[in-house]
Specification:
The chain is α/β, with parallel strands linked by helices. The chain is built from 13 helices and eleven strands. Helix 6 crosses helix 8.
């Protein structure tokens, strides 16, 4: 029977706790630090880990795993930058992720929904309007926004989430532009996209090719009043260049669900620091896939990969 360490919150999801407890001996450590998790792995002879990147403040790597009996890591996510995949491959630890289960992830539009929400929040200054009325004020003139129907929206990455995001934008009447060198659709170049679009939304995995793809080189090309939305990974953009572009008005707003080094000291994040200094930035704590419906489907899939 499996000894399973659950290091991500699941008790809020209907039926998920009961399902995993049917698979073996389950030990919960949803908010533990790295040393606490390692102690659990060693003392309870854990062979299976159920995880998700959003709640972790550490990486699942050699330091955590060496000398344990872990043979299976189940992550309820498409991204795997919270796991040292190379090390796991070297020591024959199996990793299951949602990345290539295309039929399942077609049913999970939550991240695209958040991307659209971040875009709308920036364009219509929704957070600022809320704070304005919290102070018992009622002056709309500070919050005149933009109308999506008359905007050009660039979609970088035309996989599942990029296609969904494009559909939402088209439904609102926006003109959309696509950039993805790996799909056969009519598309524009990144350079042209930054020159012409009012909003650019990022939907790509982190690779050597995409890391820091949005930097001053592209931002210097941007038209006035550009907004960027990032629900991919923080490393897709050069965050210092984002701040510089906001300072120099090359960029009007940045809405992101991700930052670089989410496991580190958040007080050192230039994006969070910039938001606290009053720059037009909205940051959410990697909540893109965090919906009851989406999580229940993803966690059920992952748990069903565990053999009794």
């Amino acid at each position: 029977m499996s000894n399973i360490a659950v290091i991500t919150p699941i008790k809020h999801l209907p039926g998920v706790q009961q399902l995993i407890e049917s698979k073996g001996n389950v030990f919960y450590l949803e908010e533990g630090n790295k040393q606490q998790v390692r102690n659990l792995l060693l003392t309870k002879n854990i062979n299976t880990i159920l995880c998700n990147p959003n709640q972790q403040t550490y990486k699942i790597d050699q330091e955590l795993l060496e000398g344990t009996q872990v043979s299976l890591i189940n992550t309820c996510s498409t991204g795997m930058n919270h796991i040292d995949v190379d090390y796991c491959n070297d020591v024959n630890i199996t990793i299951y992720s949602l990345t290539k289960d295309y039929e399942l992830i077609k049913q999970l539009p939550s991240t695209s929904e958040l991307a659209f929400g971040l875009m709308l929040s920036l364009l219509r200054q929704i957070p600022e309007s809320k704070h304005h009325t919290l102070n018992y004020q009622w002056d709309y003139t500070q919050f005149v926004g933009r109308q999506i129907k008359d905007l050009k929206v660039g979609i970088v990455g035309y996989g599942r989430l990029g296609k969904i995001m494009e559909g939402y934008c088209k439904a609102f009447g926006a003109q959309t532009f696509i950039y993805d060198p790996y799909v056969d659709v009519f598309q524009t170049s990144l350079e042209q996209m930054f020159q012409e679009c009012d909003v650019i939304s990022l939907h790509v995995h982190v690779t050597d090719e995409t890391k820091y793809m949005v930097s001053s080189k592209l931002l210097d090309l941007s038209k006035k009043d550009l907004y960027i939305i990032n629900t991919s990974r923080g490393e897709i953009v050069n965050e210092l260049d984002i701040i510089d572009a906001l300072n120099t008005k090359k960029l009007t707003g940045y809405g992101t669900d991700v930052i670089e080094d989410e496991f580190g000291d958040l007080t050192k994040s230039p994006i969070i620091k910039g938001m606290n200094e009053g720059k037009n930035i909205i940051v959410t704590p990697h909540t893109g896939g965090m919906t009851i419906e989406g999580q229940t489907k993803a966690y059920t899939w992952a748990i069903n990969k565990i053999k009794k």
